[in-house]
Write a structure and sequence with these properties.
By secondary structure, this protein is α+β, with helices and mostly antiparallel strands. Helix content is 47%, strand content 14%. Helix 1 packs across helix 2. The termini are close together.
Length: 72
């Protein structure tokens, strides 16, 4: 797994607690923001970073994009 910053680790933990671990259980940035109790801008930037590192996958949908972990 790529080296993760403390905030990235916290976002991954929040996603695990939400059950966002496969493509059938994706969660939105809003879901992850509420669970992690961090500012939405910080969460969305972190999700982008994690996507670039290949740790999570972003799924574009009609309303809000969803995310799930591809490496545990």
């Amino acid at each position: 797994m790529a080296e993760l910053t403390p905030i990235e680790q916290m976002i991954i933990k929040a996603m695990q607690e939400l059950g966002a671990t496969k493509d059938t259980s994706i969660k939105t940035a809003d879901d992850i923001t509420k669970k992690s109790n961090r500012p939405k801008g910080l969460v969305t930037n972190t999700l982008t970073s994690l996507t670039q590192k290949g740790v999570i996958k972003r799924v574009a949908r009609e309303k809000a994009s969803g995310y799930y972990i591809i490496q545990a």
